[in-house]
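Reviewers of the previous submission asked for a worked example of the structure-prediction workflow described in the proposal, so we include one complete record here. The input consisted solely of the amino acid sequence. No template or homolog information was supplied to the procedure at any stage.
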Amino acid sequence: MKRLLRPAVFLLSVVMWQCGGKDNYMEEEMDDEPTALLEEILRIEDQLLATMPMADTALAADLIQKINRYTTALPYDTLSAQLMIKAANLFLLFPDMEVNALRQLQLVYTRFAGQNHAAQALFLSGMIYDNNLRQPQQAIKMWEQLIEQYPGHPLSAQAATLLKITDEDPSNDIELIQKWLNDPKNKTNQIQVQTE
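From that input alone, the workflow returned the following structure tokens.
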């Protein structure tokens, strides 16, 4: 019995090794597509950057499509988080695509909760709500969530500053600016800025 057991264990380990070898080979084969896709993304990104400040929207749309293919293939890869943030910024090159940008960012801050990219996504979501969509209440929610979940992150300090100056009623912003302009202590700051 012992004589049969040793060769059986050896044979079983060889079979398992061979199966493991094939799995690794298949993983390498699958890795080729995301690697090629990533190279394509970087190539298109370089082309797009060359067209700035007047962005080529056809290149931007192509880049968004490639990023979506990559992030679909590797949804929990940290590079996917970076690429989704890029895609969100690219959506802002198109009119009325802010909601698509917010969807990309929502994927990042839910999928990568607790990571640096999630904090970035929350901060950018707040910026889009405030600057693009003129929804300061939503911006405030995003920044409060950032501060609560990522208190030590550098963007939390920026979010706290933005919370101080963001008013839920956008019409009050004009009043704040006029107050600041009329304040005598800010007159010297204004002169310094103009002369620099």
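Residues 1-30, 189-196 have pLDDT under 50 and may be disordered. We consider this example representative of the routine output the project will generate in years two and three.
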